[in-house]
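haha ok so turns out i had the wrong file open the whole time. this is the CORRECT one, sorry everyone. sequence first:
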Amino acid sequence: MHLETDEDAWVDDDPRPLRTVFLRDDSQSILVANEADDLSFDYGLNPYRGCEHGCAYCYARTYHEYLGFSAGLDFESKIVVKPDAPALLERALANGSYKPGTISLSGVTDCYQPIERKLMLTRACLEVLARFRNPVVVITKNALVCRDLDHLAELARHQAVAVYLSVTTMDPDHCRPTDLARRALSLEFTRP
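then structure:
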């Protein structure tokens, strides 16, 4: 693979590509109740805001504007990180006033974006969810989800997980799941 920088594309004298900045979010709560009838989950949980994948079609870009950032380059280069997400989740689930429901893990970003390899916030949240046997829905485009098969399989034993993979391609043959992938998904995620 070869990367060639277009020197004319950068306004400053700095020819380097845009650098990602990670900003700490010290939120005191982590679950957001979903009031929309047309969505199939009860709460949203976002350990990150913004997404380094930077997909042009991402519907979540506009949510970055609520933070005072742009939905353009800021969305993919200013990533808000909630390092206390797993502890806040555990506290929320253990609270006597918590009404059990399905949690969507990262509805406004990909919870398996590149920084997750290092920070492992999604993995820690899945560990909490597995311990509480709380249903969760995960949507990602990153194969890193396979790293957490242990927690996902534990949730699947209680029929408490759904994982949706987004595959971006222009090739219609790649849009269809292969027999091998279909078998693997049915074994890993739907068998009790």
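Confidence is low (pLDDT under 50) at residues 187-192.
again sry for the mixup
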